[in-house]
């Protein structure tokens, strides 16, 4: 075997077959005149159209106005008294208020506390008498419960 290659002819492709009926381009979305959709005509829409219309309306309104705002060059003249709160009639003498005498009354509660007997009985039976020192104190236990082995 030698390191040289044998000379060969260049490979030539046979070529494409021709189409008798080319396929449809796309599903219809985005391709005009493929299904029911027709080509949409372009219509321009100015960006500032609303602003321009408002300017035209304002200019038409200002052209219909006759003059500016009504302003007087005269200073205000006092037609009435300078103090509207002035009262010419004399005032009535002030009324004397009678001082109430404060009498000391002993305190009486508005609702008395419930008492035994009568219709305000708290229980059917009276409460038992209290015992004197019912709890007996325990003596501390001298014996320990746990003693370690190495002590």
Automatic annotation (TrEMBL):
It is found in: Cytoplasm, Cytoskeleton, Microtubule organizing center, Centrosome. GO terms for cellular component: centrosome; cytoplasmic microtubule. PANTHER family: UPF0602 PROTEIN C4ORF47. Residues 1-33, 83-151 are annotated as: Disordered. Belongs to the CFAP96 family. This is Cilia-and flagella-associated protein 96. Keywords: Cytoplasm, Cytoskeleton. Signal peptide: none annotated. Residues 140-151 have a biased composition (Polar residues).
